[in-house]
Each structure stands twice: as C-alpha cells, then as structure tokens.
Amino acid sequence: MPVQNENIIYESNMIDYFDFIPDPASLEEATKFLDTDGRVEIVGKFQEDSSRANKNGRKYKGVWKKVLSDPSLIERMQLGHVFGELDHPLDGATKLSRCSHLVTGLHLREDGEVHGKLVLLETTAGKNAKAIYKGGGRPGVSSRGAGSVNKLTNEVQEDYKFHTFDIVADPSTHGAYPTPTNLGSSIQQIPMGSFQTPQLRIVKED
Length: 206
Description:
Blueprint: E1 3-10, E2 41-48, H1 63-67, H2 71-78, E3 83-85, E4 99-108, E5 113-120, H3 124-134, E6 140-150, E7 161-168, E8 179-181, E9 201-202
C-alpha cells in the first residue's frame, strides 16, 4: 500500500479552529493529582487510539496501544526522561533549554482515549505555560513522534515512534485540552480515580 514517509508527525492543528467546551467526564481518571510539593500538574485527555480522523486527517487506530505497551516508555517516565516543550519545536528535537514540562503518566482507556499527566517545570517555558493557565487560558496537548502515514487511508503506520507530548494552542486531537491542578484559588478541581503515575495501565479492547 502507498505510504507517505514523514520524519516528524506533529498533532497540533494549524488551520481549523473550533469552540470546545470541556466535558467534566473526561477528568474521571485518576489519583490525587494535587501533590504536597505544590507542583502544577496537567491532567486529562491527550490523544485517541481510534479510527476517527483527527483535525489533521490522521488516524491512530492501534498505534497508541502499541506505544503504551512499550516497557521502555514506562522506564523513561519513571526516570523523568520524557520532556515536552511549549509549542512543537520546528526542528523536531527536544532541547532541555526549551522544556516546559515532564510527562509523568499515560494510560489507554477502554473507549480508546489516551489520558495522561504532565508536570510543569520551573523553567522559563514552564513558567510561561503556568502564566497562561493562571490567566484563564486553556491550551491543549499534542503528540510528537516520527513515522509514516498511509496515503490512501491516512492511517499512521506501525513504524510510528513516540517522542513526547507538547503544550500547544490548538491540538488536532478532538478534546485534548487537559485540566491544570494546584494553581491556587483560580482552579480548585482535583480529579480522583484509579490512575497511577508513573506506572502504565493498558486496557485491553474486546
């Protein structure tokens, strides 16, 4: 089958914009996301493992189940190695001088949604992200990885290699606007549930 090779697959949407009203049900996964050390954490939907096309027209059916079953990803999260940036880097590479956050937890739900958790760092980019949230902004989260896309079906192929999640203004994944916690009086909603970090839980699909 014809396959389109792409060095970097960004999943922020640069063209189509729409109004999104976050569904409180999307926050049902997970532990006590308010840590005692006062870290600001971003929790909620990050991606979809689905045959539904995102706003870039791409489909990730089966891709995230494979990505999240990789033991090396669990280890990288445990060791604090999954850094992300504020906006996708133009060169596709993660630079510590530009990092805004750490990705500390990911899991695949039964409905195919990938939910996760990231922690803002006290870097320049991290402080900028925190200021956006404290000012009432609601940026999204977008995956960054490398791989190929089938030209006929727009399906991301099995060679996809996940890099990280970045904070962006307009993600291509529908509803990928996770919620910040521990911002003080501006946001007090603390989602609770069974999500554990940095462990990974894969939900098998029937």
